[in-house]
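FAQ

Q: What does a record look like?
A: Structure on top, sequence underneath. For example:
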């Protein structure tokens, strides 16, 4: 139950987690949010663009990875990683970009969302850089176009591409990456959690042996990145 307090806040009780009841005070109106986070600097508001600057084009030409956020008409969200050699996102004109779709798990959650709600958010990264490029816009799904030839990697042509009409473009600061110490190799600890084969064995494919899954996620996994 929510108990609404002053300035639109509310106290919510989520229930028990590991025997401990979790309670929190919730913000329920924009005025209280503004009081807590403050007023944005004018330059952070003015930096938005709807068309691509030459610096944006340079970033896209060198970025090998982005996150694509979508939601359906009910607000159910999905974020999908997309990666390829740097420059995998094509600039078609000053307000249109295209991303190839490569073989994956075939869930296509983001594509299903786009068919129901075309709004997307993209976050482009360059390894070693803390700042990012953010692009929001409206997406369509293409199955063929002349630019598909430019998306071939190792002779593999994508079956689909995401075409995005840009509506909001801006560069985002590096503070979150700096707090996470993300690109510092000394902070990396990939063995801190179970390996991918062990996670698959526990959560997805209990009928398979660990040895089978280790072979699947071994050298042969990399050989199938483009459907080989």
């Amino acid at each position: 139950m929510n108990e609404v307090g002053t300035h639109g806040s509310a106290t919510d009780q989520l229930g028990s987690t590991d025997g401990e009841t979790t309670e929190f005070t919730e913000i329920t109106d924009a005025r209280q949010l503004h009081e807590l986070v403050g007023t944005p600097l004018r330059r952070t508001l003015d930096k938005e663009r709807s068309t691509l600057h030459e610096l944006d084009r340079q970033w896209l030409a060198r970025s090998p990875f982005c996150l694509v956020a979508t939601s359906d008409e009910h607000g159910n969200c999905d974020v999908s990683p997309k990666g390829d050699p740097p420059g995998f996102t094509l600039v078609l004109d000053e307000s249109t970009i295209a991303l190839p779709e490569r073989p994956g798990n075939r869930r296509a959650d983001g594509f299903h969302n786009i068919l129901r709600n075309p709004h997307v958010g993209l976050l482009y990264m360059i390894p070693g850089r803390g700042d990012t490029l953010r692009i929001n816009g409206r997406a369509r799904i293409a199955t063929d176009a002349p630019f598909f030839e430019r998306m071939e990697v190792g002779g593999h042509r994508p079956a689909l591409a995401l075409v995005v009409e840009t509506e909001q473009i801006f560069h985002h600061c590096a503070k979150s990456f700096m707090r996470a110490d993300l690109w510092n190799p000394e902070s990396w600890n990939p063995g801190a959690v179970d390996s991918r084969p062990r996670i698959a064995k526990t959560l997805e494919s209990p009928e398979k042996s660990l040895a089978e899954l280790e072979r699947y996620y071994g050298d042969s996994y990399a050989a199938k990145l483009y459907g080989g």
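Q: Is there anything notable about this one?
A: DSSP finds eight helices and ten strands in the chain.
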